[in-house]
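Hi support team,

I'm opening this ticket because the web form for multi-chain structure prediction keeps timing out on my end. I have pasted the exact lines I submitted so you can reproduce it. The total is 596 residues across two entries, so I didn't expect it to be a heavy job. Is there a limit I'm missing, or should I split the entries? Thanks in advance, R.K.
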Amino acid sequence: MNDMKMLINTAQQVRKNILRMTLHAGSYGAHIGGGLSLSEILTTLYLHTMNISPKNVCNPERDRLILSKGHGAIALYAVLKEAGFISENELFSFKQDSKNFWTHPRKDPTIGIEFSSGSLGQGLSLAAGTALALRKQNNNAHIYVVIGDGECDEGSIWEAASFISHHQLDNITVIIDENKLQLDAPTQDIVNKDKLSERWQSFGFEVLTIDGHNIPDLVNAFSHRSTKKPIAIIARTIKGKGVSFIENNPEWHVHPLTQQQYEQAMEELKNV
Amino acid sequence: MYKFSSTDIRTWALLGQRGTLGKVLYDMIGERKNIIAMTADQGALIGFHRIQNQYPDNFINMGISEQNAIGVAAGLSNEGYIPFLAFQAAFTSLRCADQTHVAMAYMGLNIKLIGIFSGLTQGDCGPTHYALHDIALYRSFPKVTVLSPSDATQMVKVLQATSEVFSPTYIRIGGPNNLPIVYKEDFDFQIGKAITLREGKDVAIIATGSMVYNSLKAAEILSSKGISSTIMDMHTIKPLDKQAVKESLSHKLIVTVEEHSIYGGLGGAVAENLSLLKKRPPHLIIGTQGEYPHAASYSYLLEQAGLTPEKIALKIENTYKEIC
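Hello R.K., no limit was hit. The queue was backed up. Here is the completed structure from your submission:
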């Protein structure tokens, strides 16, 4: 129970990190909406589920996270800080010239960033190759891939999904951050995502649909395994979760924060 | 592993570059279990079935999903395997360019990507299957080595050499089975070091891939007309052998010949290298240009594109007479 409380608190701290980083990034702003929708997902993976820590980050037995929706990097950095992979100083080098931490993650095995991402639709294929490699080596590490619901527009996601189920890569869990918004508008209005769960099922995945902000649900879903079947978790989330004026507002896909907005947002988080 | 006997060389030539790829990879996998042969539903055309039967753990048929193929190769590479991934050059260069851009040019993963049926080889299939732009693309990608072997024996050397180095690499192969032989006996091969096949004083012909043999034949025609030619096999287009290009400066005319667009290929690479020199010979770039021809036989298309020995010789002779 204490564990759950710790995770809930950490996810809130991750949100605060995201707000501070966004403020710090000045006029660049940041992918704040998607960052906030990912807070519980990435917190639970790094601080509970995954066998990865700064100590074993170079160990082949580590579990691997692939952030296919690379624009969620702000949440990844915020979690890497809480999990001890990067320092406070590194966190606040976000979007600073000559520093490492920008809009999309750059491959850095020393802090558990397995691959560079940013061009959507590629992470699931990378996961498939990694999963095959681990299977050849009798390595039981598990691979978690985070993709967006908007990213499911990409044809290559479905090429990879076919391949993964054909090869029965049950060492992969795909997490679909279903926040129902993409850059321009609600995903449903652009290219509908009806029956997303059935789509993944029909591609041979065992599908779990959960509340992507409910940590006990995430904990259970992430540990779920199915013999010879990959898992797809549809994590229903709210883009901008936790800050009233950002929640469900497409304008906040990428946006800067004013000092006043920052203070209001921090106040709202404090009251949770 | 090989003796490079005359029998070996004849066998590889009969297999062509594609068949040689399947044979050599089969032998390499026998010795090195970290090599994975991959294709996107082209296995029957590159002799991968033997690998599939003998070494099923070292073979993956990706199906017709080129974008996913690059991602899977990237994942395998990231875990220490060496994927050799082969399918049509038209698609290795365009269908999955974004994936290769991220995996090879950005992350620098050790993927060996092999474009088969490059240039006009698959002429009967028409412009969707022409690959006249692949050098231009991969030459512009950071970190990526670009290789273009001139015959089947050199393909063996290329595969052996590239498997020894950690480097994302694009290998462009083409031509028919029963490929003309450029190298009749064993020879020294080093990535990045051009091979001079003939020495002359008037024209320096720098050729790559299928056009090395045609340039050798063109040089014989030119010789009969009193024009002597140096022939360089520029099998590595990136990194370019700058010393070899420098050696071409002693001639009255530099010519590059490639089964590729005149824009951005070997010709572009050499021209960029010469661009700051105050005094240098003129440079004739021979390759394809203009609209794509309709589907036709490979030999007909080479003729139309001016890439037969006779047409290459004629173009060089006319240019030489006009400006030298």
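A quick check on our side: Residues 6-172 of chain B form a domain with the Rossmann fold fold (CATH 3.40.50.970). Let us know if the file doesn't open in your viewer.
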